[in-house]
Amino acid sequence: MTNHPPNFIVQRVQTGVRMEKRILKVLKAFAEYKDMTLGDLIEGIVLHAFDGKAPFGQDSLRRIADLKKFYGLDLNSAASHRLKEASAGKSRIKTTPRRGRSTKSSRREKS
């Protein structure tokens, strides 16, 4: 009879996390390869990181390298905190007419 470690009862919540498209593709493909959900994979990665441990062994890292090539993911940890969206700032910044300009000229400039 095998002695299994105890399970942990948790409460999961739905989240709307935004992520770089190719990173997500690699994560989804790797989760599928490991026959697990994307959420389970991310939880495992985070729990390992919180403990200061590497989440992947050599076989997994080789598979991830293959998936990165397949999906054109050329980013690594050096890119962390430096990712900017291609359309960043354009759709969210509201412009107001400068003082001294008429409303008509401001409308023309926006077109």
**H/E series:** HHHH
Structural class by helix and strand composition:
mainly alpha
Radius of gyration: 22 Å
Give the helix tally: 4
Oligomer class: single chain
Assign an overall shape: globular
Helix content: 40-55%
Strand content: under 5%
Mean pLDDT: 85
The number of strands is 0
What is the terminal-to-terminal distance? Answer: 74 Å
Largest sheet composition: none
Uncertain ranges: 91-95, 102-111
Descriptors:
mainly alpha, globular, 4 helices, disordered C terminus, 111 residues
Short description:
43% of the residues lie in helices and 0% in strands. It is mostly helical and 111 residues long. It has a domain at 18-73.
Structural topology:
Layout: H1 21-33, H2 38-50, H3 58-71, H4 103-110
Detailed description of the structure:
With 111 residues, the chain is mostly helical. It has a domain at 18-73. It is 43% helix and 0% strand. The protein has 4 helices and no strands. It has helices at 21-33, 38-50, 58-71, 103-110. The longest helix has 14 residues, at 58-71. Residues 91-95 and 102-111 have low confidence and may be disordered.
